[in-house]
Amino acid sequence: MSQPAVTYELVASQDKARRGILHTPHGSVETPTFMPVGTVGSVKGLAPWELKSMGAGVVLGNTYHLHLRPGEELIARRGGLHSFVAWDGPMLTDSGGFQVFSLAALNQITEEGVAFRSHIDGSKRFLSPEESMRIQKALGADIIMAFDQCPPADAERSMIEAAMGRTTRWLDRCIAALDSPQQALFGIVQGGVDLELRVQHIEEICSRDLPGFALGGLSVGETNEAMYEVLEHTAYRLPSGKPRYLMGVGTPRDLVEAVAQGIDMFDCVLPTRNGRMGTAMTSEGRINIKNARFAEDDGPLDPECPCPTCTTFSRAYLRHLYQAKEILVMRALSEHNLWYLMGLMERCRAAISEGTFDQLLADTRARWPLASERSEQ
After folding, report:
1. Is residue 343 predicted with pLDDT exceeding 50?
2. What are the backbone angles phi and psi of residue 17, rounded to the nearest 5°?
């Protein structure tokens, strides 16, 4: 049997939290790791060399958006997504399913796949497990995701069960359609916030011998407390010798809580989206640079951060740029937020190796209280 394209190596652990190395055809990445999202082939506002400088490992591409524009055939003719976007490290593409369900107009779900209209030009499109595999093969990412159905957070149990069954059947079709040995297919677990259904779906999905597994359908509207309960009861049940990926989660508190439960990989648009909206993740908590109190603050955005933004610009200058609607501030805050999360993941890895992760978790909870915890104080 040939060696899997992607493998996981455990380095250290503390309780459920674990430190490891993700080996891929385009290099190895230390875990836990946060993966910047390059929706249309670009992490918004940032160049590949800037991602390298902050220690980014895996970068994401979005199958739905890249399929619609510029098209996977054009990308394939230019050597694949790595070459096209000038990123020589590991890449992951999602299946396109989440965007079809959340962005596309008038989508119609059948057992065969999803018919939808492009949000760009209204053209009729169809995405199936086989089509998702074909597109992702053309894109050429190291890790590709199975085509799944993600039910909304408030879905009834019957709808969640239907989405689970379809996700399992679609996974088998993805496995049958995939003929690219240099790409690793990850299965996705659904089940909403119902613990019984989550465990049931883990057993179904993880019975397939895949190189990695993801928890999907979280951070889609449920409370933080509900997500943490799901993670506590499910993350450790994913195969210990394979990477564990929590999809779409990116607040500092959520990341560290998930690492505590044994998650290895994360992605989210939050750091760059928040940056464009004028908010920063810092050692002092969340900062809104638009606030008038920063108008004459000559201190750095985050005194504990070594990123170019924090070592170059003052809070007063960043606030001025935002008030003036200058593009530079959006780039600067986006870059800082990603540096912050990269540093947080580095601290997680070090704490797991040193046996001090419990203290890091306690510090993170104190620095980033949930809304319910703030109301109790």
Report:
1. yes
2. -65, 145
Q: What are the angstrom distances between the C-alpha of 374 and each of 57, 143, 366, 367, 371?
A: 34, 39, 10, 11, 5
Tokens of 367: 């620095």
Residues 117 and 109 sit within 8 Å (Cβ to Cβ): no
- Neighbour order of strands in the sheet with 124-127: 105-109, 114-117, 124-127
Q: Is 70 exceeded by the pLDDT of residue 377?
A: no
Euclidean distance between CA atoms 55 and 187, whole angstroms: 27
Cα end-to-end distance, the chain, whole Å: 57
Question: Using CA atoms, how far apart are residues 98 and 15, in angstroms rounded to an integer?
Answer: 32
Of 304, 301, 359, nearest to 335 by C-alpha is: 301
Choose, from 142, 254, 264, 267, the residue flagged as catalytic.
Answer: 267
Mean pLDDT of the chain: 96
Is the whole-model pTM more than 0.85?
yes
Contact between 313 and 339 under an 8 Å Cβ cutoff? The reply is no
CATH 3.20.20.105 in the chain: give the residue spans. Answer: 43-269
Q: Which residues make Cβ contacts (< 8 Å) with residue 60, sequence separation at least 6?
A: 35, 36, 37, 38, 39, 91, 92, 93, 94, 267
| Dihedral sign (CA 255, 28, 93, 306) | positive
Catalytic residue among 15, 94, 154, 179: 94
Q: Output DSSP code: residue 179.
A: -
Identify the pLDDT of residue 101. Answer: 77
The pLDDT, as a whole number, for residue 71 is: 98
3-state SS, one letter per residue, for 190-227: CCCCCHHHHHHHHHHHCCCCCCEEEECCCCCCCCHHHH
Q: Which of 245, 273, 175, 311 is nearest to 34 (CA)?
A: 245
Pull the structure tokens for residue 74: 């054009």
pLDDT in tens, 198-233: 999 999 999 999 999 999 999 999 999 999 999 999
Q: pLDDT digit string (tens) for 23-44?
A: 999 999 999 999 999 999 999 9
Residue 363 bears catalytic tag: no
Write the CATH number of the domain with boundaries 43-269.
3.20.20.105
358 is an active site residue: no
Closest CA to 62 of 209, 281, 247, 265: 247
Instruction: Note the pLDDT tens digit of each residue in 91-110.
Output: 999 999 888 877 766 788 89
